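User: quick one, sequence for these tokens?
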């Protein structure tokens, strides 16, 4: 090939490459500057971003607040919000909450420190008010700083991104009788996860939502409805979260502030929702004051009720693994698909599923979770996946073989029967009477297979132990349990199975986990 032809070829290749891979429209922002207010750790440190050349006083200062078990690098990463904000001309700051030191802090611990940092950031930039963008639990920590620790005069707008304003059922399960063993081994039971249990958050809402400070700041709420792909941890989490969700937080929880303003929903996972290419263009317009129209469209309905109604189409199992563990459950005919995710801490543990006819299903094992989202409660678990199309009816057996391990099984039934669970409320005072009922629709309840419900108390650093057993009464297709709540303040889980009999006489199993809290005379829940 002569030189002229070679030059033409190179030019063509260069042009086609430019069409396929256009040059980036934005540059990477310089590294943030550390304000090392805690030389012995990260908690309380804060960073200021580089001031962009196109910065304008007309644009608010943004403080970014990370979520559960995360650091400021949630925002300072490839495709992060920091780069997007820098290129858009915003001055920025970042905070390090207790989670940055390895163990998550509850909203009270983080909120108090965050209130201090909010004031420091405002003073540093010489502004009267700043705006905040908060991911996940960071939205709760932010609200605590504003409402309970006096920072509300310094903040104009808060944009929550997938914040569990009503808690997360995944946190409930971390303290349940089934998953507690595994959560202990993985080290994911801490003050932060404890505070995200749905009943703890119900009590937090009662302490917060009637305060006048909530009206000082405009709060936007955003939610996700996706996952990280089939058989990912966030995909399996859909089974235990109510309604639509992002694999960690339900839409109902993310939009759980009656005085908040709905910003957007997007078909995206809890971790991917903070990627700038996915959501920056949806968040940035809300950084200015809310318009009259937006304020008129805010969430006005109050979904808080004296009772809660949920549906269960899952089967849960879990416990210690030493040599061989065998668990059984029933599936009915007519199921479209049965998806099984069995989590362990060891990659050497072997999981198999055996059908009623003896067919053996070997699990497809993941290595450690591939998700980049540090806030996943079971992030470090090994996931053993089994998918069964149109499973046969009868008694199924899960076998787990390993040593010095624990497991947590989540079986999701697609297209089968559902159990409707109704509880009197989520928060009680000591000595109150509680009631929970399970409606199996037109299906009968098999009393011969009915076991007592195990009542456990949520504690960090301890194995879940059964405090009491609640008996049930059966009347046709409904199961009812009445009991007196414990006298000791705290968060509790009532875990049990219900076996129904469908019209064809086939038994089927569904698992129930009822999370509730008991407060002291001052309405407080005992912290860990």
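Assistant:
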């Amino acid at each position: 090939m002569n030189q002229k032809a070679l030059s033409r070829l190179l030019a063509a290749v260069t042009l086609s490459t430019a069409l396929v891979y256009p040059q980036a429209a934005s540059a990477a922002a310089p590294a943030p500057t550390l304000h090392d207010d805690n030389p012995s750790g990260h908690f309380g440190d804060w960073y200021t971003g580089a001031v962009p050349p196109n910065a304008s006083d007309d644009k608010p200062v943004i403080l970014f607040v990370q979520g559960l078990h995360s650091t400021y690098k949630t925002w300072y990463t490839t495709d992060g919000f920091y780069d997007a904000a820098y290129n858009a001309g915003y001055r920025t700051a970042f905070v390090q909450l207790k989670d940055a030191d390895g163990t998550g802090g509850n909203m009270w611990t983080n909120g108090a420190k965050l209130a201090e940092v909010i004031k420091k950031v405002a003073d540093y930039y010489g502004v009267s008010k700043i705006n905040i963008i908060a991911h996940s639990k960071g939205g709760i920590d932010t609200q605590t700083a504003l409402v309970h620790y006096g920072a509300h005069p310094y903040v104009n707008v808060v944009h929550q991104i997938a914040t569990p304003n009503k808690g997360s059922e995944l946190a409930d399960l971390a303290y349940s009788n089934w998953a507690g063993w595994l959560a202990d081994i993985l080290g994911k039971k801490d003050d932060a996860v404890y505070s995200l249990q749905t009943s703890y958050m119900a009590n937090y809402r009662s302490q917060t939502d009637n305060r006048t400070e909530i009206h000082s700041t405009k709060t936007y709420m955003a939610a996700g409805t996706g996952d990280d792909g089939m058989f990912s941890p966030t995909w399996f989490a859909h089974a235990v979260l109510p309604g639509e969700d992002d694999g960690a937080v339900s839409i109902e929880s993310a939009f759980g502030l009656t005085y908040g303003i709905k910003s957007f929903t997007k078909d995206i996972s809890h971790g991917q929702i903070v990627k700038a290419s996915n959501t920056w263009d949806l968040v940035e317009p809300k950084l200015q004051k809310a318009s009259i129209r937006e304020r008129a469209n805010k969430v006005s309905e109050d979904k808080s009720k004296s009772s809660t109604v949920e549906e269960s189409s899952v089967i849960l199992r879990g416990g210690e693994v030493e040599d061989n563990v065998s668990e059984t459950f029933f599936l009915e005919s007519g199921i479209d698909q049965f998806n099984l995710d069995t989590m362990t801490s060891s990659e050497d543990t072997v999981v198999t599923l055996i059908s009623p006819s003896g067919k053996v299903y070997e699990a497809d094992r993941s290595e450690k979770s591939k998700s980049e989202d540090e806030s996943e409660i079971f992030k470090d678990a090994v996931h053993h996946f089994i998918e069964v199309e149109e499973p046969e009816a009868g008694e199924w057996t899960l076998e787990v073989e390993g040593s010095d391990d624990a497991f947590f099984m989540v079986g999701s039934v697609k297209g089968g029967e559902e159990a409707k669970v109704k509880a009197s409320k989520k928060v009680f005072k000591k000595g109150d009477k509680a009631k929970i009922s399970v409606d199996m629709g037109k299906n009968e309840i098999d009393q011969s297979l009915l076991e007592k419900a195990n009542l456990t108390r949520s504690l960090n650093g301890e194995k879940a132990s059964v405090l009491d057993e609640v008996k049930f009464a059966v009347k046709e297709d409904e199961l009812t349990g009445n009991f007196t709540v414990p006298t000791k303040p705290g968060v509790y889980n009532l875990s049990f199975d219900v076996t129904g009999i469908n019209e064809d006489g086939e038994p089927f199993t569904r698992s129930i986990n009822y999370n509730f809290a008991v407060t002291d005379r001052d309405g407080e829940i005992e912290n860990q």
